[in-house]
Amino acid sequence: MTTAADLMHSGVRWISDTETLDRVAELMRDMNVGAMPVSDSNDRMCGIITDRDIVVACIAAGRDPSQVTAKELCKGTPRWTTTDSGVSEVLQEMQSHQIRRLPVIDGDKRLVGMISESDLAGRLPEEQIAAFVGRIYAD
Description:
This protein has seven helices and six strands. By secondary structure, it is α/β, with parallel strands linked by helices. It has one domain: CBS-domain, CATH 3.10.580.10.
């Protein structure tokens, strides 16, 4: 059975909720990623910041990214999956919440990877990807 561990890309790290958005943007650039999970002071995931979040909720709103923290943009309940989750569980989580990136944690609740649309596209059959895309982008 294919699991989240098989689908994910590793080398992911999270940022502190006290990190400023200008620094988050620099890290995204340096790591060539479009999203980073955010941890609170207890090393628990409290959200995820995307490059789009920084542009829309900060820059386009006239705010200074050197003065806005990741915590200010984290809203809602963070979503994730575990390394041993099957493909159907991963797809269901992403589809039901219409999210395009899903952090992966291990049994010790440590961040070990991220699953993105491109990870799925490279590892799943075309029919499964087509169904996923149809659901994730549904209004």
